[in-house]
User: Fold this.
Amino acid sequence: MPGIQRIILIADKVKDRVRLPAHLKISVYKEDDVLESAIRLVGQREKRNLWALFFLPLEEVARVDSFFKDFKITEVAHVSVAFSGEMELPHNSPLLASILDLRGSAISELESRFLIDRAFRDMEQQKLDAGEETRKQITLVDTYHDLESLIDIGKSLTLEKNSDRLLRQILYLSKKITGADAGSIYITEKDGRGGRRLRFKYSHTFSKELAYEEFTLPFDESSIAGHVALSGQVLNIADVYDLAEDAPVSFNRSFDQTHNYRTKSMLVVPMRNHLDQVIGVIQLINCKETGEKYTGNEAYELLLKEPQDFEQGVVPFDSRYENLMQAVASQAAIALENNRMILQIERQFDEFVKASVTAIESHDPATSGHSFRVAAMCVNMAHIINLQKSGPLAEVQFSETQIKELEMAGLLHDFGKVYIDPGIFLKGEKLYPHDFVYLKLRLSYLYRSMELCYARELLALKSQPETTVREKIDRLQKDGEAKLEALREIMVLVTELNKPSILNEDRNVLIQGILSQAPGLECEDLEGSHIPLLKREEIENFKIARGTLNREERRIIESHVEHTYTFVSKIPWPVEYQQIPEIARKHHEKLDGSGYPDKIQGRDNIPIQSRIMTIADIYDALAAADRPYKKAMELKRVFAILREEAAENKLDGELLELFISEKAYTTGKVESLQRS
Ligand SMILES: [Fe+2]
Ligand SMILES: [Fe+2]
Assistant:
């Protein structure tokens, strides 16, 4: 075997007991201390390829063995033939493993020839075994590294939520683990005619700064990537310039010529999704050799500049990378599919939320745009809070997901209004229009009835001699006119009482004034039913001090929060949007417990998102010009009302001041939300 030096060392003490064959082509050393000579010989040889056969006394075996035990069997091998003297070798001695023979007497020439042959054959076998072992170890280490890379890739791909960054990550990791100099990534897309195309999404060449643009390729044999996408098979090409004429694929050299590059080895793998469909292709170019088998990192960082770099530095992709890259491509495909599905779900949620908001808006056109404006103001506030470097809100940080969650909650906060009779929202006066018309008709009926009544009485009196009824007629005309005048006044008064504005006089006093006249003005209809001046419900509504809603209507409107909560809770939100129902439910709670529906008290019990929303909600209700009973209020007045509420510990004062000072209410975002 080349490079191996075989030696025989015979200890002086046993030299008389060994008779070596004549014409032996092996160096023989007969010395007092055979180990000393072995050490000297090993030290002289750079590569230490030494095979030694010792003939020595049994008591020296342990010393020799312990010296050689630190050497690899591939570097130094030895076999000892020991001769026992006074010492007896124990039956189960570990030394037996390295002792070829144990003899009490001398050995003949024939026996020594046999022993030498057997010893060196034995050493050769040991080396072969060790070689196999080393190969196995290398494979094991490769496998370990591959697995490690796969786990790392799996982890990092799962974490990346941005699709573009994910593609770059996939390509970067693929190049790194295979030691490829360049690579491209293609994604399958529909071509609009029921077919598929490959979109060249991203490319990177380590040795060269190359600009690239997106383009598409047909899903066919006209390109290597197209072929792989179509066949679904891995392609591992040692040199693309050596492709046979009849090969299923051909290589277009124009890229190389334009960019002064030499594409040589290529590994192209399809990315398959869970349905086994090819959703893309990873194309790796020019595997770089470093001399070290499993240092992809170092290989990756070698630069290919000159023609000889490509000739000497580029090797075919090892076949183990085919399997490894298929595994990477599967992980990449899963990550891409996950991202696509997440985006799809987000889009679906967005669409769903927008559709829901449209439903609210059409249900209550009076507050058109309110949900969009509240959502936009909430988002503004979250961004403003994120910028705070000092003060009580400096510690609060909203992630992008939390901002999205807040936006969704803002858009849906009033969704429960769709469960409420839209007439309540449109109620612009104390009575619904039809109720007011009925009241006026009733009063008109009373007026006409009274008019008729007096006319009849007058007619009856006029049939009598004038001198006897003169006084009666005068009184009747006076009374009748006064009552009719009273009814006309009542008609004017109820019109005033019906208005939502604040009156100069106390409503209760006015109502009492009307009711006090009832005995003389009320009458019965043709069926004998009593016709009142004012009905109980009308009195209740006219008594409403502010706005147009009575207690029951207010309760119904307030129930929108619980309807919102019930509806929004039923939506299977992704885990990061779990707080939406809670945030929306609390948008009418006040810090002092005077809000609804749960009368929650204290800042700690109302999430900051809801506290923000409450401010935005009230601001919009006051500042918007879209309520039926009010015009847009001046900002100064709006802020004064909001500050008053904060002073009464109803609104969060710190949030309110930030809302006002940073103008969170001016939202360019509003239009973009409404447009999208
Ligand atoms: Fe609300
Ligand atoms: Fe609202």
In short: The chain has four domains: 5-133, 160-342, 364-422+555-675, 428-548. The radius of gyration is 49 Å.
